[in-house]
Inverse folding.
């Protein structure tokens, strides 16, 4: 492991700091890398390049996302449409999730320049969906459906199928509410069993890393339905933060036991190689 650059704008505090990274779908040509960071006055998306083993100059492309020491979101993913999807938290202010004038508590969809992407619900806004508390996992399946893992408050964590222009209910509903105009989650967990963070899709299944739950969840996906959740490694490696498909068809899973809430072992933190 070696240092390739520093994101000086990131201001670490509790759950805030340097929270997300993703590479351009055309990286072979443009060498672009994107970071999500908590800066002095806001959360923001930064764009840079990675050339000759070093990061280039970082340029803010999307700013004004509400910040706090917790509930900052920060997961990013490029979709099949080559647009950038960005999750934000409501920064401990639940009303922001329903405020269409705020970028907090949303999933945003933007171009690589940070502009509202063509086809957004409001052509002048980066907002794709709203009513989120704190989304920390995003994954596209083979059919192009977007899934999100989301922290609840006291009772239910959620796995949601994300659809354009939908309201996912926070703070009016935690978990399934069956209320008109609000989207129900596909699966809920107790907060003791999940506190879901990273999310990945591989070979017909979603894989969800759980922090407080200290486990890796597997969820079957059939068309637009998620079911048959099963957990692995319960308590074996501690808090699990991120899961991504590896080039060899396995999964990489990171632990998060040095985050102030875990009980670090001698070799923490680790990247685990998991065979699906």
């Amino acid at each position: 492991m070696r240092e390739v650059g520093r994101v000086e704008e990131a201001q670490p505090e509790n759950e805030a700091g340097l929270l997300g990274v993703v590479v351009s779908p055309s990286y072979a040509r443009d060498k672009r890398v994107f970071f999500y960071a908590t800066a002095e006055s806001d959360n923001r998306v930064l764009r840079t390049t990675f050339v000759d083993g070093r990061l280039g100059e970082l340029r803010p492309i999307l700013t004004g996302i509400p910040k706090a020491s917790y509930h900052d979101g920060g997961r990013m993913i490029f979709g099949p449409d080559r647009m950038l999807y960005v999750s934000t938290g409501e920064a401990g202010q639940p009303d922001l999730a329903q405020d269409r004038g705020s970028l907090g508590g949303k999933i945003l969809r933007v171009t690589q320049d940070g502009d509202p992407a063509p086809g957004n619900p409001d052509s002048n806004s980066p907002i794709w969906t709203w009513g989120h508390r704190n989304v920390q996992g995003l994954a596209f399946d083979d059919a192009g459906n977007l899934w999100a893992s989301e922290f609840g408050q006291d009772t239910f964590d959620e796995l949601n199928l994300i659809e354009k222009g939908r309201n996912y209910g926070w703070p009016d509903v935690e978990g399934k509410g069956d209320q008109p105009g609000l989207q129900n989650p596909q699966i809920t967990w107790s907060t003791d069993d999940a506190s879901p963070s990273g999310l990945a899709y591989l070979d017909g299944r979603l894989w969800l890393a759980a922090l407080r739950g200290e486990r890796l969840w597997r969820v079957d996906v059939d068309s637009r339905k998620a079911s048959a959740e099963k957990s692995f490694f319960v308590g074996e490696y501690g808090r699990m933060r991120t899961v991504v498909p590896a080039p060899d068809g396995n999964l990489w899973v990171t632990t998060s036991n040095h985050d102030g809430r875990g009980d670090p072992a001698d070799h923490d933190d680790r990247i685990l190689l998991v065979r699906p």
Observations:
- The chain has two domains: 1-191, 195-276.
- The chain has one helix and 20 strands.
- The helical segments are 27-30.
